[in-house]
Amino acid sequence: MTYIRGDKAQFDEWEQFGNPGWNWDTMPEYYKKVETIFPPAPAQIQVGASIEPRCHGTSSELHVAFNPALENGPLYDTHRDSWAVMKEGVNKDVNRGTTKGFSVCPQTLDPRENKRWDSATAFYWPIQSRQNLKHLNGTVSKLPWKNTNAVSGAQAAGVEYLGPDGKRRTAKVGKEVIISAGALRTPLVLEHSGIGNPHLLKQKGIEVVVDLPAVGENMIDQALSSLFYTTNINIKGYTLYSTFVTAADIYGSTIDKVAKDTEAKLGKQARQLAQASHGGLNASALERILKIQHNVIFNKHATLAEILSTAQGDKIGTSYWDLMPFGRGSVHMRSIDDVDSPVIDSRYFYIDFDLATQVESGKVGVEFWTSSPVKKIIMGQFAPNATVLPPGTTDEQWKEFLADSSSSNSPAIGTASMMSRELGGVVDSKLKVYGTKNVRVVDASVLPMQVSGHLTATVYAVADRASDIILGRPW
Ligand SMILES: Cc1cc2nc3c(=O)[nH]c(=O)nc-3n(C[C@H](O)[C@H](O)[C@H](O)COP(=O)(O)OP(=O)(O)OC[C@H]3O[C@@H](n4cnc5c(N)ncnc54)[C@H](O)[C@@H]3O)c2cc1C
């Protein structure tokens, strides 16, 4: 998987959401602590792979490297030179806290075996035979409660799950339960256990244990769009070139006006999003959050869009996405009998700025493919073809195309956000679910704001930090 962490400014704002000690000063230690970087080989350096060693770990479980089959023709130079024409320079290490610029993406893999390095390979298989580790297969349905004391916090007695044979079983808990079902499933476990928006829980016939309306709300996904061409060269090697651009890069001379207009609408948009959440989100709290996000985008210049080039055979192109949408979606349980099929409302492009950013990012991509020297290798538009997006496509045509063709980029976060309770948080800064005594969440659902990265890097770092918190180590 692509391994990219994000921008310093985004992590620094986590503190403002009510999470002391969660910022860019403290995160790199955890990124490094879980990582072994394999510096690029000389042949890979020739085709753009580069790192700053000080930003990386050298002796841990997660193996990070550049693909051994990196394309070794002139494609990297062609890309670099065209991005240079568009004033985007080379980023020597996309993982150093600023993603802006053009770079070859590192991945979670072991270059010695050219083997994908997933979470099981890195963290589970090496310790699976430990005597104090027991693995049970099944789908968790809910947490039964030992008590539901509102003052001391509800205490989970165990974890109820459906075994592979379809039988319902309960595993007893000794100390605490850690839910890591991901941003699209963790809210379901909480809701089935009676933690969530009372309005929704009562509707589904679930008894309310903790009144926590934001469970399943605050979902921030990214919508992905693509633009592919046929090329006159035959590309055999692996290509994964990323260009991260800021709002100023995207909006050019109109940036000040765009920033002002966007800020002026945040109050109204927060009210609309809150209304759509059936009481899950509070409008004034959300407005505060959106203003923090606005500041990160327009004043702290975190990158706002990623434009990722890939190629194979005679096809070449870019996928692109708005990294930090203002829209907030939701994921909730479907029914009391169904523990595994969430109702998802992504609310892509619910906010006009999000759609405008996607349009402008698409145009940056078109400008790139039609600039020198890269345009020399382009034969024609492949998907969408030139009938759908003709030269001189209007903004309205762009919007129609994107609304019809975009899909999830799959980095959903925020559905059990680590924020103060008044802002709409579900877990506190120690990842403990509000109103409970012994339930934590450790997965992408706790991330309160999108990062200009690919999420697994950050999920691993947050998980390692969670282990320090759980074990009571200083952090
Ligand atoms: C197609 C695709 C491509 C991606 N590419 C990249 C990439 O290149 N780089 C990158 O960094 N990120 C990538 N991502 C995003 C990344 O995979 C996620 O952000 C990340 O996996 C989130 O981690 P998580 O631990 O929160 O959730 P998950 O990885 O989803 O883990 C949750 C786990 O909980 C299990 N589970 C769910 N519900 C239950 C239940 N009720 N009972 C028991 N178990 C349950 C699931 O089976 C799963 O194993 C990609 C995602 C997708 C879908």
Automatic annotation (TrEMBL):
Positions of FAD binding: V140
Keyword Flavoprotein attributed: yes
Protein keywords: FAD, Flavoprotein, Oxidoreductase
Required cofactor names: FAD
Glucose-methanol-choline oxidoreductase N-terminal domain residues: 182-196
UniProt keyword Calcium, yes or no: no
Gene3D superfamilies, per the entry: FAD/NAD(P)-binding domain (3.50.50.60), Glucose Oxidase, domain 2 (4.10.450.10), Glucose Oxidase, domain 3 (3.30.560.10)
Family, per entry: Belongs to the GMC oxidoreductase family.
The protein's name in its UniProt record: GMC oxidoreductase
Organism: Metarhizium acridum (strain CQMa 102)
